[in-house]
Description:
There is one protein chain. This protein is mainly beta. The protein has four domains: 2-128, Sandwich (Immunoglobulin-like); 134-200, Sandwich (Immunoglobulin-like), CATH 2.60.40.1120; 205-268, Sandwich (Immunoglobulin-like), CATH 2.60.40.1120; 276-909, TonB-dependent receptor, beta-barrel domain (Maltoporin, Chain A, Beta Barrel). Helices cover 7% and strands 53% of the residues. It is built from eight helices and 60 strands. The strands form 14 sheets. The protein has a 22-stranded antiparallel β-barrel. Strands 25-30-31-28-29 form a five-stranded mixed β-sheet. Strand 39 (513-530) and strand 40 (533-551) form a beta hairpin. The relative contact order is 0.07.
Amino acid sequence: MFSNRLVPNRNVIYNIARACEQLKQYPDAYRYYTQTLEQESDPQVRQRIEEALARIGPGVAVLDIVTDPPGATVYLDRRDLGPRGNSPRRLGLSPGRYQVLLALDGYEPAQTDALEVEAGAIRPVRITLKRILGTIRAAGEPAGTQMHVDDENAPAVCAIPCQTSLPPGKHTLYFTRDGFQSVIQTVEVAPRAVLTVRTKLEPLQGTVVVSTDEREALVEIDGRPVGFSPAVLLVHAGSHRVRVSLSGYRSVERQIAVLPNRQVRLDLELRRFEEVSAASRSTESVEDAPGSVTIISQNELRTMAYPNILEAMRGVRGVYVSDDRSYPTLGFRGFSRLGDYGNRVLVLVDGHAMNDNWMGSSYVGYDGRTDLGDIERIEVVRGPGSVLYGTGAFSGVVNLVTRNTGPQSGAEVGVSTGDYGMARARGRVDLRLGKNAGVWMSVGAGRSNGRDYYLPEYADEGGWARHVDGFKSGTVSGKAWWNSLSLQWQLHSHKKRIPNGAYDSLFGDPRTSNADTRAFVEAKFDKEVVRGVQIMTRAFADSYRFHGAYPYAPADGGLMEERYAGAWAGGEGRVVVEPATRAKLTLGGESQLHFLAQQRGRSEDGVYLDRNDPFRMAAAYALADLTPWDSMRMSGGARVDWHSTYGASLNPRVALIFRPYERGILKFLGGKAFRAPSVMELYYGDSGATQVASADVTHLRPETLWSPEVEFSHRFSNTWVGMVAGYANYIDSLITGRGDGTPESLFHYENSLSPVLTVGGEVELRREWHQGWAVSGSYSLQRSQYLQSHNASAPLLREVPNSPEHLAALKGSVPIIPQVLIASTRVSIEGPRYDKHDQEGDPAQGRTDPACVWDVVFSGEAARGTVRYAIGAYNVFDWRYTVPISRETSRQTTILQYGRTFLMSASTHF
């Protein structure tokens, strides 16, 4: 034993074991035999040792200790007694109870309960040691980044945000993700501590260059707007979906693979694809729309710098314009009654009707909005539209589609001048609040001193109307949306002086004026709730206010003032179901309550009118579309409207659209429209002085229009289109004035017994906008005439007033310096129009002279498209022409239209 302590030797240990065996100290013998066996490699010696262990086994109690991991230091009962070796280890012991204690660096200490061991038995002890660890919490971006520990090629331990446990000490963390630059961090992990690690991986990027033959196309990558073409974009490496879209063109989509530090080029040609929503209240191509449609694009609105709707509509096929210096109006296809102020044309803003609820007037000049800066396009639908919109959609529908925000927030400001000293300013703010949310708001203001007029009819009063033609206007509008919800609003106010003695008031008096204020707010929900089922609901509130001032001689009542206050609210629900791929069914209903329809009138002699006549309306409609073959589409439907003022009206529409060959479209259209009697026509009166409320003396029925039409178009190329159309309009129950305003014959309204028939044809050839080039030419021939009634009491009528037989227009744009300088021009020609004297007994009916108006505008962009400008002249020839006016002014039959005017505009966005 002494020599073994000095120099450990297995032979000595073996001899000690044999001695202990002879002394019957079997536990000690077992321990020394075991130590010898661990060191011995000779097979014969090992066999003798194993035989000795078997020989003494019955006298030894054995603990077979195995740990995971191995190498733990083994103690029995107390650590201060010294270790018994390292696991795995078999300990030979005297029979009894023992507690095993274990220790291993990097692991928690472990121990067993007291173990009972018997002689001759082997008691297995299996213990898994718990590692002493620290915790790493990994966070950062992008989410999903994988974390590797100590070896970048080893499997990831987790994807951030995550946490994992590691042994104490230094570790190297590798953060990786496809398409991103890897990040390496070295950390010191403390035992039983939590360490937070944050990282940010920069994407591996390549360049995507997007070019289109039409500028300012919206570029989206993976559904996210990123800019406008032409664009150079830094894009994360990997696979991406690119979508390029531009209003009026088909969207283009491409799947691209972007490599790090490499460039991908997309040179795209956009194909023209005009969309319209006003023809069927759902967005569809113009070619497939069940109506005769013209789109005034944003390109045309910009290059011609149209100041208002009226000027934008001049030169549109089948449309003509008038301005009696009170309100400008539109005529469609040879029909525009004098003094109706456009109440047979429905004007919409994003589908919301803007006509008032007093006369049903449409507002298409500065009385409608101060400018067109918020308008993306104007949709013009000719013919009856009551199946969709009810009353007022009689001769045609004009829908102003507003532009939404771009991919980024921004702002713009602009100024402009024109129309005899007219000056305007506007501003707009666009806020992008996410991929599917945003808001835009705009404000505009304008004023003009107008022009001076010499009216020979008033030669006995000097003939000159000076400084009495000006106006002031202001507009506030906006829209907010989030996913399928939207909220839209508009407030517009306009005050106009009247130079020509309206209603036989004093000529040239600066007090003669009309003031109109129109406002609305609309909330809408529009969503495809399940595949093939679209639901739209909207609620709205509208207001209209009018104030008219008309000075007369003191003996005739002095200053007369008339006011109207209208307010209404309503709602609509619509569901569109596609039960099959080629079938669509639309069902809807609408209700309105006009709870305020108050007319007031007073002169210096007292009040002559004060009444409120609220009314209600409700409607239900159904439309069906069927496409049995690619070459044929059938559309039909009807709408029934109920008004508390007269009853019900049923209005159907049918359309057959054929594609006889790839580039040809043939449309057969037919429908009915109506116009309900207005509050003014029903209830206006002056206490019997000159006029009586028509509702007190007659029952006014709605006006009706029946219209068949055929239209054929041929596309010669991607940009050239030609079309020809023929139509007939039969108008019955026209609401017209009767009586001469004397006590014996008080003025009132009644339904005419003489229908009006209009038959016409149109041709048009156009090159659609492409790279700054555009041209179109159109000619319209229409003939309107009264049909003699079989009723003997019907008055004999002459020619239909204010109906030119011939209309022609030529428009075009040429890029002189692409984008920087574009020359645009428009020539509009119209034939003579008959004046208001259409009844037997009137003075001889006269006609206006033909007119030719030539407009030229130069426009373009600067400072990389952030600045836009336009400069030009309308009516360059200074053509002096007149249009008929209504019987509201007894002395005049026609009024002079604007001569040459100059315009300038500039705007910037940032």
